[in-house]
Amino acid sequence: MNTILFTFHFLICIALICLILTQQGKGSEMGVAFSSSSSSSLFGSQGSSAFLVKLTTILACIFFINCLTIGVLNKHPNESKIISKVIES
Questions:
Q1: Directed axis angle between helix 2-22 and helix 49-75, to 10°?
Q2: In the chain, where are the structural domains located?
Q3: What pLDDT is stored for residue 43 in this prediction?
């Protein structure tokens, strides 16, 4: 079970790193905004970045849930054995 969770965790980490590095910052168009173009492009339309932000948010939530799951399962690894012994007797 731990191997599956850690592999899933590793894949989420790689996906998050790739998504974060491919996104543009909000200030990346500032130079264009103050030149001859209109000032509405400073924080204007986001285009495809809205999808990337939503996908990053979803992956971050999955990442944190997976972290909590790994932590809870590894808090007391022998606890399930103790409970099963109590139930059997």
A1: 150
A2: 1-16+47-89
A3: 46
